[in-house]
């Protein structure tokens, strides 16, 4: 992409009003703009990152479930059937249509998926199933803040499992646990599963995934032993029930809780020298809630010896919140430092002198070759001072920069800079191309 033709509005000054680094950087680098309290437009740079995060979530969910898409607008009657229309409270945006029918903008989808499943599934042979979708949600948060971290409209991946018994449901839960560890690992962040409350969804088994960050909204209490756990299990099979259970025990067996579930008497059992406190960002949450919705909404399947009420779980990931959380975990004084897996573009090309013919020719040639090789590249071809362009590239955080100017070209070289380490290397254009493809 050529910057001269892009809508990438970078702000010269750090915006006022934003309290934390990720929010500031998302505004300054032009990822999002607020259009109403807690509601954001995603500009091209933000949209590219959001899509990458979403795609990683999708790929890992596809290994355990099947994608579908449910609507954002739901009918109040659906929520009356499950009995939680009145219970949900002011976080729910309630809407009336022209026929005076009560509708709502979905804050979550347990009720809808249970109704859909009930209407089309009759036999125990059709279970187990795991379904997911990635869709916008609305929650009328009392205090939207920190940009997309606590928006009112936000993108969530929510998955739902249906099993014949509790043992099956636990296996579904363990599978999602592994899928989450892999998902966050691929994004370059460490999210620790912590014992959780199940809130208004109600439940029996529940863990939140927290990214450690000094500006996180949750207060954390954990045994230092969690820092030692390697949460990535590349070789593990989703079909190996014993290995999944062992993973669950290891990943959740150590004391790790938020202020919502912290218990002083259990905390006292953690040796003092291993007690850690801190703050974190909730990026995901998994629940096993049994027959709560299936029972309330009359979901039954016929079994070999009579009807069976399926046991369910639900599994959320805050896709848009993750963009903020990743920045919170990965930035420096000059701007964002994207992990390569979610970077909007892998390479940025900067011409130091847009009025120098040889510089422009070399940049055009490299840009064409990188594009042909399928490398996502942002080419700053604007007629701007070199220093301004370099500052913009650092702020936007692309993993690699190729800096081209007359001085280097005289010696036949361009500069390749690694955004994370700051390391610079002088290479011939051919060698630069070889390094980045
Ligand atoms: P929180 O405790 O932050 O209010 P929650 O526990 O209410 O979140 P869940 O119902 O567990 O949220 O939803 C699943 C995921 O959706 C959360 O783990 C979080 O990552 C994300 N999420 C929830 N609320 C918001 C929001 N207002 N803005 C952005 N993401 C959100
Ligand atoms: Mg909430
Ligand atoms: Mg929560
Ligand atoms: Mg939660």
Give an overview of the whole structure.
The protein has 437 residues and is an alpha+beta fold. It is built from 14 helices and 23 strands. Helix 2 crosses helix 10. The mean pLDDT is 95. Strands 3, 7, 8, 9, 10, 11, 12, 13 and 16 form a nine-stranded mixed sheet that branches. Strands 20-19-21-22-23 form a five-stranded mixed sheet, sandwiched between helices. Strand 17 and strand 18 form a beta hairpin. 32% of the residues lie in helices and 28% in strands. The structure holds adenosine-5'-triphosphate and magnesium ion (3 copies). One magnesium ion is lined by residues 208, 282, 285. InterPro entries: aa-tRNA-synt_IIb, aa-tRNA-synth_II, aa-tRNA-synth_II/BPL/LPL, Anticodon-bd, Anticodon-bd_dom_sf, Pro-tRNA-ligase_IIa, Pro-tRNA_synthetase, Prolyl-tRNA_ligase_IIa_type2. Keywords: Aminoacyl-tRNA synthetase, ATP-binding, Cytoplasm, Ligase, Nucleotide-binding, Protein biosynthesis.
């Amino acid at each position: 992409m050529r910057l001269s033709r892009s809508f990438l509005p970078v702000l010269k000054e750090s915006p006022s009003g934003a309290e934390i680094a990720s929010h500031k950087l998302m505004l300054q680098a032009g990822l999002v703009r607020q259009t109403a309290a807690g509601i954001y437009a995603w500009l091209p740079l933000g949209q590219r990152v959001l899509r990458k995060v979403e795609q990683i979530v999708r790929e890992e969910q596809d290994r355990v479930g099947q994608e579908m898409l449910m609507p954002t607008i739901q009918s109040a009657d659906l929520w009356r059937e499950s009995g939680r229309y009145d219970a949900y409270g002011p976080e729910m945006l309630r809407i009336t249509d022209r026929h005076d029918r009560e509708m709502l903008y979905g804050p979550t989808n347990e009720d809808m998926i249970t109704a859909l499943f009930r209407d089309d599934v009759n036999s125990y042979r059709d279970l187990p199933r795991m379904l997911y979708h990635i869709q916008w949600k609305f929650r009328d948060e009392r205090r939207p803040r920190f940009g997309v971290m606590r928006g009112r409209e936000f993108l969530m991946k929510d998955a739902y499992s249906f099993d014949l018994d509790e043992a099956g449901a636990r296996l579904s839960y363990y599978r999602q646990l592994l899928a989450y560890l892999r998902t966050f690992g691929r994004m370059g962040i460490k999210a620790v599963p912590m014992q959780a409350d199940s809130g208004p969804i109600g439940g029996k088994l529940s863990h939140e995934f927290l990214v450690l960050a000094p500006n996180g909204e949750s207060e954390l209490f954990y045994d230092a032993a969690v820092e030692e756990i390697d949460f990535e299990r590349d070789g593990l099979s989703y079909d190996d029930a014993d290995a999944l259970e062992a993973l669950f025990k290891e990943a959740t067996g150590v004391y790790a809780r938020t202020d919502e579930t912290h218990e002083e008497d259990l905390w006292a059992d953690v040796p003092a020298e291993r007690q850690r406190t801190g703050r974190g960002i909730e990026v995901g949450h998994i629940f096993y809630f049994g027959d709560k919705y299936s029972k309330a909404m009359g979901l039954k399947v016929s079994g070999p010896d009579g009807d069976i009420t399926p046991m369910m779980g639900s599994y959320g990931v805050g896709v848009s919140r993750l963009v903020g959380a990743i920045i919170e975990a990965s930035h420096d004084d000059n701007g964002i430092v994207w992990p390569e897996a979610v970077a909007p573009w892998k390479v940025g090309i900067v011409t130091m002198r847009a009025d120098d013919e040889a510089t422009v020719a070399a940049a055009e040639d490299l840009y064409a070759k990188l594009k042909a090789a399928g490398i996502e590249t942002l080419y700053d071809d604007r007629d701007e001072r070199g220093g301004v362009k370099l500052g913009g590239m650092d702020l936007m955080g692309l993993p690699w920069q190729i800096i081209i100017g007359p001085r280097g070209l005289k010696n036949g070289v361009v500069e390749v800079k690694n955004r994370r380490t700051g390391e610079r290397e002088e290479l011939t254009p051919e060698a630069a191309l070889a390094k980045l493809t």
